[in-house]
Design a protein that fits this description.
By secondary structure, the protein is an alpha/beta fold. The protein has one domain: Rossmann fold. It has nine helices and ten strands. It has an eight-stranded mixed β-sheet with strand order 3-2-1-4-5-6-10-8, sandwiched between helices. The protein has a two-stranded parallel sheet with strand order 7-9. β1, α1 and β2 form a beta-alpha-beta unit. α1 crosses α7, α2 crosses α4 and α7 packs across α8. It is globular. About 40% of the residues are buried. It binds NADP nicotinamide-adenine-dinucleotide phosphate. NADP nicotinamide-adenine-dinucleotide phosphate (NAP) binds next to α1, α4, α6 and β7. NADP nicotinamide-adenine-dinucleotide phosphate binds next to α1, α4, α6 and β7.
Length: about 250
């Protein structure tokens, strides 16, 4: 039986990464329940797939009981939420969009008590660090840059807090949730290609590596579906970057 036999709940399916996750999960024959604000923004083609169920709702104001129903019986939740790049999206509510979603999913799982822990796969960023200084210490300039970023941009703060919620708070000893925080570097368009995954950060923020949306989507789908990938990475915050040399070879 597939590790994703119960299907996947997808948050952010109308986004650049989420849309690719949606297509890839469906291509692999797995059922998806997408919770979106507007079905009209879903990728064309995916909407007609019988394995897709669309829930049109605003996650930020969704009652706990409704989310609980959507998660019930599912094997995994993939979260590709991100703040819209506009003045309102970056600085308006909900400033804790991603953290709030992560906490709400953990709460739903705690009340559902599934026999197998729910997999929660969170899209994050290399600007997010692991707890207890597990990552290589960044240089003083980079640390200052990240501090300014978090002070000025609520979404940067939200990403760190969402990861912290899993690694050091509600997700840390959760009996019914296992998680992976996926940290891409500088995101770009392009077809799926070879990529590498690392336990910690590998590049300076000022000399960023590239990561294609399509590769992030592939890795997240692998985590949702493949047992070996899950065992390798659960409870960790892998960094994913394109393998440029392998793609050229
Ligand atoms: N490492 C990097 O370089 C890097 C770069 C960019 C992003 N990231 C991180 O990766 C994640 C996803 O990035 P992306 O570029 O794929 O995102 P994106 O294309 O901007 O998509 C964001 C998704 O979140 C949804 N969303 C936004 N505000 C919402 C709200 N208030 N309520 C419910 N849904 C909402 C959007 O839905 P609508 O269609 O309804 O707006 C959309 O589906 C983000 O957390 C981001 O911080 C990392």
């Amino acid at each position: 039986m597939s590790a994703a036999a119960g299907g996947v709940v997808l948050l952010g399916a109308t986004g650049r990464t989420g849309g690719r996750v949606l297509r890839q999960v469906l291509e692999r024959g797995v059922a998806v329940r997408a919770i979106v604000r507007s079905a009209a923004r879903l990728p064309p083609g995916a909407v007609a797939d019988a394995r897709l169920t669309v829930v049109e709702a605003d996650l930020a104001s969704m009652p706990a009981e409704a989310l609980r129903r959507h998660v019930e019986g599912r094997s995994a939740v993939i979260c590709c939420l991100g703040h819209t790049v506009s003045l309102r999206g970056l600085f308006g509510p909900p400033r804790d969009l991603v953290e709030g979603a992560v906490r709400a999913v953990c709460e739903a799982a705690a009340s559902l008590r599934p026999a197998t822990p729910l997999r929660l796969i969170l899209m994050s960023s290399v600007s997010v660090h692991r707890p207890a200084r597990a990552d290589v210490r960044r240089g003083a300039g980079e640390r200052a840059f990240v501090r300014v970023l978090r002070a000025l941009l609520p979404p940067a703060r939200d990403n760190q807090r969402a990861a912290d919620a899993l690694a050091s708070d509600v997700g840390a000893e959760h009996p019914f949730v296992e998680w992976v925080v996926v940290r891409p570097d500088s995101l770009s368009e392009g077809d799926p290609s070879a990529y590498r995954t690392h336990e910690g950060i590998v590049s300076s923020l000022f000399r960023a590596d590239g990561t294609r949306f399509a590769n992030v989507a592939h890795f997240m789908v692998e985590l949702a579906i493949e047992e070996a990938a899950w065992r390798r990475w659960r409870g960790q915050m892998p960094v994913i970057v394109d393998d440029v040399a392998a793609s050229r070879a």
